Amino acid sequence: MEAALLNVLCVDVGSTFTKAALVDPDAGVLLARAAVPTTVRTDVLDGVRAARALMADGGHALPEVEDREHTLLCSSAGGGLRLSVVGYQPTVTAEAGHRVGLSAGAKVVHVAGGELRRVGVTALRASRPDVVLLVGGTDGGNADVLLHNARRLAAARLPAPVVVAGNVQARDEVMQTLHDAGRTVVAADNVLPRIGVVEPGSARAAIREVFLHHVIGGKGLSRGPLFESLVRAATPDAVLAGVEELGRALGEDVMVVDIGGATTDVYSVLTPEGEDATLRKHVVATLWHARTVEGDLGMRWSAATVLQAARAEHLPGADEPDLHAWVTLVVAEPARVPQSPEEQRLDLELARLAGLLAVRRHGRPASPGEAPRPLTNVAHLVGSGGVLRHAEPAAARRVLAGVLADHGGGWRPPDGARPAVDTAYLLCAVGLLAPEHPRAAAALAHQVVG
What is the four-CA torsion angle of 40, 42, 46, 47, rounded to 10 degrees? Predict the structure, then answer.
C-alpha cells in the first residue's frame, strides 16, 4: 500500500497578517487554519512559526517550517511585487504588458509607451519597480523601439531585473544589450505575438521566476535563505492560480471579488464562446484569465476614495452621513474594527460600494471601441477579504448580491450566478497546491463554493 503523504502547510505571508492552512493532500481536506500578525519588524518566518504553533494542538501531523517539500508559501509582504512596463505603444504592447503584469500577481506601478527619453527614464526610476517588463512589437514586426528602449534601460541607473517579452526576432540582441551592461535579464515569449492575440503564460512564468530568485531575497524580510526558498509565488499570483483551478474543478466561469484594506482585486476565469472563441476583434484581445486591481478602492487606507467614486457613479448610499462619519474614522484609524452592529452595517455598506465599483471597472471595456468583458456566463461569484470572511453569512451574501443585481455599470451581469464567500481563505491554498498536488487542489476548490 502506498504510504500516505505528509500534510502540507500552505501559508500566505501578507503585509498585515500571515494566514496558514494545513491540508491533507491525500483527501484534499482542510485540517486546520490559523492567522497571526505578520512579523515584518523581526523576521517574517517568526510569524509563520507562530501560525504553525497555533495549529499544533489539533493532533495533526505538521511539517516543519524548514521542510521545503511540504511547506508552501506565497507572499505580498514588503509591498508585494512592483512591476513597471515599458512598451512600444501605450494602447497596444504597453497595454498588453500591463494586463500580463496584473495576471502575474504584480502591482503595476508605471506604464511607458514609445521611445524612452530622459524624462521617461526618470519617471521609471521614480516608480521604484522590483521588475521591469520590456515589451514591444509583434513577432517579425518593427523592432526599432524595442531595441532603443533596451539600450536606454542598459544605460539607466535602475537595478531592477528585466523580463524581455517583445518581438522574438529582436530578443537575442535585446538580451545581449542588457547582459553586456551587467543587468539581470530573463527572456520570455512575446506577450503580443500577433495583433489581437495576448499570450501571458511565458511572461507570467518569467516574472514569477524573477520575483522568487531576485526580488524576495532583496526585501530584507527574513534572515538567511530559507524564506526565499519556501516562497512559490506572489500572493495575487497564487490566488489567480486558485481561481483558475476553481474554474477547472467546477467546469464553469467564475469571478472572485477580494475586498482589502487598501485595494479591491477582481479575478475572472472565463471560457470564450460564440464569436469570442474564434474572432480577434480588438487590437489587444481579452485575457480570459484576468485580474484587475483597484488601488483607490479599499476598506481603510483608501476608504475615502470609495465614497468619491461611488458619488461619481451616483450609487445609492454614497451620500449617507453615517457612512461618511465611519469612513473618516477608519481612515484615521486603519486598524479599527467594527464595535457594534451599526458599525458592522456601515463597514459592509462600504464593502458593497467597493465591490460594486471594482467589478464595474473589471467588466467595462479596457479602451474605447472594445466590448465589455464577457461576464454573462459567470456561474459563481466568490467574495474574499476580511470584511466578508468575518461577517454573518447572510450579510456577506447581500454584499455580493448587490454586484449581481447591478445593471448600470456598462457591462451585463451574469444571470443566476451563485454567491459564496471564501470563509476559510482556501483559494490561496488551492493555488499553492495545484502544481504538485492537483487532486488535492481540485478537492479543496469545491469546498470554496460548497
Answer: -30
User: Helices 171-180 and 144-155 sit at what angle, rounded to 10 degrees?
Assistant: 10
Give the total number of structural domains in the chain. 3
Cα 302 → chain centroid = 18
206: domain CATH number is 3.40.50.261
Cα 153 to Cα 161: distance, rounded to the nearest angstrom: 10
Strands (E), 247-302: 253-259, 264-269, 289-294
Instruction: Identify whether the C-beta of residue 30 lies closer than 8 Å to the C-beta of residue 438.
Output: no
- What is the rounded CA–CA span in Å between residue 188 and residue 419? 37
User: Does residue 212 sit in the same domain as residue 281?
Assistant: no
205 and 272 in a single domain? The answer is no
Among 201, 181, 16, residue whose Cα is nearest residue 104: 201
Last residue of some domain: 191, 218, 245? 218
State pLDDT tens for residues 137-186: 899 998 999 999 999 999 998 999 999 999 999 999 999 999 999 999 99
Looking at residue 286, the DSSP 8-state letter turns out to be: P
Q: Which of 289, 291, 254, 286 is nearest to 377 (CA)?
A: 254
Rounded Cα–Cα distance for residues 403 and 378 (Å)? 12
Residue 3 maps to a domain: no
The DSSP annotation for 115-140 comes to S--HHHHHHHHHT--SEEEE--S-TT
Q: Output the pTM of the full model.
A: 0.84
Write the DSSP assignment of 369-414 as a string of letters: TPPPP--TTEEEEEEESHHHHTS-HHHHHHHHHHHHT--SSSS-PP
